[in-house]
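User:
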Amino acid sequence: MVPLISSIFLHFIFIFAVVVNGEQDSIYEILKAHGLPMGLLPKGITQFEYDDTGRFEVHLDQACNAKFESELRYDRNVSGTLSYGEIGALSGISAQELFLWFPVKGIRVDVPSSGLIYFDVGVVFKQFSLSLFETPRDCIAVRECAGLCQGHTEAVLSVAFSPDGRHLASGAGDTTVRLWDLNTQTPMFTCTGHKNWVLSIAWSPDGKHLVGGSKSGELQCWDPHTGKPTGNPLNGHKKWNTGISREPVHLNAPRGRFVSASKDGDARIWNDSLKKCVICLSGHTLALTCVKWGGDGVIYTGSQDCTIKVWETSQGKLIRELKGHGHWVNPLALSTEYVLRTGAFDHTGKEYSTSEEMKKVALERYNKMKGNAPERLVSGSDDFTMFLQEPSVSKRHKVRMTGHQQVFAVDSSPVGERVASGGKDRVLKLWMG
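Assistant: Predicted structure:
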């Protein structure tokens, strides 16, 4: 205890010397002197005020976003009160969770250091590795997309980010898919081939292939580097497409397979290279509403027959049927959703030279995110309920969640500890656990 107190006392002497001897350092050195990483603030800050009470205010040229494990948004003015290992009364920084932004009220590190840093976002402390914030990051100016991402002539019905987060695909009622460069927020290509509304889009895990599903039931594949179709439309479904999900990269080489769901009551597994259906998953008695390819190698389908079915993917056999909902099953979400969608790609932007390297890294990310817990599935229904389930463990739901009217949308946070839901009642709810 005595060495710790002495260490903190010496740090306070240094802090006092920094601000009193008439040679105030940069804001980054002041953070460092308080036992905090310099990368908490973006690169290039020269305008700031700091007094001997620990109160500081920094001024940026414009509001901007910086990418860590998740994204941080900095207002033009950021202020707070510094004490050793902590920033209190913080204002001007927000952290992204799913599609929502939460104001960061305080930041702290452990003394002595545990290698972790904690962001107080009101309802919980978000935990990050301290190493992410070692050096100040570039900060990209916040732009509004509305004036830059125009081009479709009918309603936009589906969107999907590329696995590396650099591009966006959008499908619309004008029968086209448009590809966008997110760095410039400008259109790259207009992909044609569909004859009806584009209702679903999915990228291959390596980001080199794209597939869309339409109201007519056909599927169309494109090369997103050229915007050109790769083969003829894939036919088989008799009614419109209600979802597409890719086989995770850690289970197969990039491209691999994908599964499509349809209003006709079937799901179909397609071989991306052969461009043909290899397995038809039949068993539901009414239309399919959603489909997910899980990280443990099974497929989940939700239906208007009020059930969720779990399928193995080598022969298409039914493994388990999950019952309990009293009306249509609308959306499904997996606790592993984020890491399955991004595969081997993370905030570092690393690129991979071989598919085996990509597969190995994706498996490591999946296992780290999942840990020892089973993959969890959240379902939303027209019966005003949501179920949290662990299908590999039990047929019965683990938690029943109520409070909505009809539930139309659910999604899991990147690390799986939260679920967001929306429904007919026009209310967005966040669930912990």
